[in-house]
Write the structure tokens for this entry.
Amino acid sequence: MSIPVPSRQLFIDGEWREPLLKNRIPITNPATELIIGSIPAATSEDVDLAVEAARRALSRNKGNDWASASGAHRAKYLRAIALKIKERKSELAELESMDCGKPLDEAAWDIDDVSACFDYYADLAEGLDAKPKTHVSLPMETFKCHVVKEPIGVVGLITPWNYPLLMGTWKVAPALAAGCAAILKPSELASITCLELAAVCKEVGLPPGILNVLTGFGPEAGAPLASHPNVDKVAFTGSSATGSKIMASASKLVKPVTLELGGKSPIVVFEDVDLDKAAEWTIFGCFWTNGQICSATSRLIVHESIAAEFLDRIVKWTKKIKISDPMEEGCRLGPVVSAGQYEKVLKFIETAKSEGATILCGGTRPEHLKKGYFLEPTIITDVSTSMQIWREEVFGPVLCVKTFRNEDEAIELANDTQYGLGAAVISKDLERCNRITKALNAGIVWVNCSQPCFCQAPWGGNKRSGFGRELGEWGLENYMTLKQVTEYISDEPWGWYQPPLSKY
Ligand code: NAI
Ligand code: MG
């Protein structure tokens, strides 16, 4: 028996508030197709309230407010949040799993990452106190200059459904550490755990308005947040199409944005690899989280001399993946997130077939699962570079394969994409790995692995995968702005208008 889904309202100004239009969105468990609860649907009036609350929170108790308090002060709250999340780990993992279909083990791993990420940004918040200013040496000794980092202000954070709480955390933790007040708008397809984050913040006594959580649809709740004149910055993770809309609306107010968008990442496998090791990383790189990962290495580029044997190997590994209800012990692949996503992935597979590709394995519903949005992990060969399956992000468990003859061809195929998020190279020859790493146009390169992600290292992409980097110290910079302070320290008058006139 699964746990009940808490019934929550919007979280605005430290209180639970019914959305002004009183609408709710049903939550469907993708493994059972049953409705298991609902979330409130915010609209632009609720966004206005949340933005006002965030703005107030930054100007409350002048002198001792969130933004100007010490980093150590903010770190205390971040650590308290991390601890509460740790305490609620099994419950949060279960809720996450029911909401987006990821295996319970994976969801538990995500929740560990969530609390580690809050702790990590608590450390960085404390680090801000240790270095309050940077001195800049100037060529004129009559001036002295320093630079301070300040929080950017009120930030709008819009996140997707594949790592619901973790993607929220990647933005909320650094924003709060920096001294910003935030409005988080999670995906309408998976918001339960972000509302629980709000509950955690209430429990630890986070000052009202510092974090507001608005659930709801993109056009009704996300768009008014992105275009709000009183929001100083927008950080978004999701599809390139929505990212482009957000950038367009932010541009009208010259509002800074960071965008973490789609991908079609390559994994290049050379002829010298240990076949089993490489096979496991290859399928993990594409089928972990059901391929619903922006950085999934969904294009396998394998040396022609080992291609036949390697394909046998990855099919063998793929068939070992346990597909089941995500709550079942040992589950390694659950359903995709929604009926819409299920249809979308099946359509990609149909189009690949109609364009002449071959389905090597998978491509259909597993026989033993009659209900739920389950799909067998799919490997597609006989792919040409003009096919949709090679070019577009599927966001599902679908790997497509091409072979190469030499390094140059491998690099050309790997970079043959509008995206530039992740890329992986597998070879025992580390010099070769270094050459390939340099040649890959991607924000993240994995060598002899694919996908592991650590909150200490920067995350983000090139080209149409977006810009800006989250995580690590770079993630904190996203929520800060620089102030140059220059002081005239000479006793002499400036002398530009008063004789004797200065000459240049
Ligand atoms: P999406 O990119 O539309 O949704 C991401 C977030 O943006 C959600 O919170 C959504 O409510 C919000 N949003 C949607 N329209 C908005 C707008 N006009 N203004 C402001 N916020 C808006 O992704 P969606 O609809 O969930 O999935 C569509 C496709 O995008 C998927 O099939 C998948 O292929 C891809 N996708 C890619 C992700 C990535 O990380 N690269 C993440 C999620 C989806
Ligand atoms: Mg859901």
The chain has 15 helices and 22 strands. The mean pLDDT is 96. The two ends are 82 Å apart (CA to CA). The chain has two domains: 10-261+465-486, 266-447.
